[in-house]
Design goal:
Blueprint (H helix, E strand, L loop, with lengths): L5 H10 L7 E6 L10 H13 L4 E5 L18 H8 L4 E2 L7 E5 L2 H5 L14 H7 L3 E5 L9 H7 L6 E6 L11 E7 L7 H9 L3 E6 L2 E7 H14 L12 H17 L1
Parallel strand pairs: 1-2, 1-5
Antiparallel strand pairs: 2-4, 3-4, 5-9, 6-7, 8-9
Helix pairs in contact: 1-2, 2-3
């Protein structure tokens, strides 16, 4: 297979509906594409070209070090996100676990005050801002099981299986060495997010294009929220799997049954 070029990536993104001025959040696996001429930098440059100077390009840069150090902790979710993080004009949100990095016209707005949010993915977070900015999600060579923004739907729907966790305070907190922070509506455990891809496709909220060996799924975030909230309203455990050997999902069913029993 011939090397994939930046221009080819731009063409495919435009074909999939990425437009000048878009705000996009991408999850990716560089290896899924094949050999890219210019590597991760070429992919990043392609997305930036596709959204233009008025657009914004964000990536998840989740890190699991505690205490969290936003200046130095590497992204754990792929080489493209780590190269994006290291760019001089890339801004990282201050939030343990579900931080993002953004470049572009709305990068500062998208990342601002993430550390002041009550939860990782809820009100005031980049994930709800992405919805309110009429944003798009690009899943490049990955599927919805890597789509962090789906946790924001669980957050606003107050899913019963979300937890509270205590972590060492991140290093940007003064006197962090002797402090902890509590994160509410934390979202560990398993989900069956893959089935949601079919729903998004059926509702016209998702388009797919080929980039090298990879499929890029491009999702309309507002439509994704509308559909996700509708499905969770009908079935609060829609995102859970039905494998009886999955302890996390089994416990979620138990918690929901107890909640329903109290209401009865």
């Amino acid at each position: 297979m011939k090397p994939i070029t930046k221009d080819q990536i731009v063409f495919s993104l435009k074909l999939g509906g990425i437009e000048n001025g878009d705000v996009v959040l991408m999850h990716s696996a560089l290896s899924s594409i094949g050999f890219v001429e210019g590597g991760a930098d070429a992919v990043i440059d392609a997305v930036l070209e596709a959204v233009g100077e008025e657009g914004t390009f964000a990536v998840s840069t989740m890190a699991f070090n505690h205490p969290y150090d936003p200046e130095n902790d590497k992204s754990t979710v792929g080489i493209i996100s780590e190269v994006h993080r290291l760019r001089k004009n890339s801004i990282r949100s201050l939030r343990p676990v579900h931080c993002i990095n953004a470049i572009g016209a709305k990068a500062e707005e998208l990342t601002r005050d993430h550390d002041k949010c009550a939860t990782n993915c809820g009100v005031g977070s980049p994930y709800l801002k992405l919805r309110d900015m009429n944003g798009k999600i690009i899943l490049l060579g990955v599927d919805n099981n890597r789509n962090t923004t789906l946790h924001a739907i669980e957050d606003i729907m107050d899913s019963v299986y979300l937890e509270s966790r205590v972590f060492p305070a991140p290093k940007y907190v003064e006197g962090y060495e002797n402090k902890t922070i509590e994160i509410n509506k934390f979202c560990p455990g398993h989900r069956d997010f893959l089935k949601f891809t079919v729903d998004l496709r059926r509702e016209g909220a998702l388009t797919e294009v080929v980039i090298g060996n990879a499929t890029a799924k491009i999702i309309d975030v507002k439509k994704m929220f509308e559909l996700g909230q509708k499905l969770l309203s009908k079935d609060p455990l829609y995102f859970m799997c039905d494998n009886e050997n999955c302890a996390y999902c089994a416990n979620a069913y138990k918690q929901q049954a107890e909640k329903d029993a109290k209401r009865a």
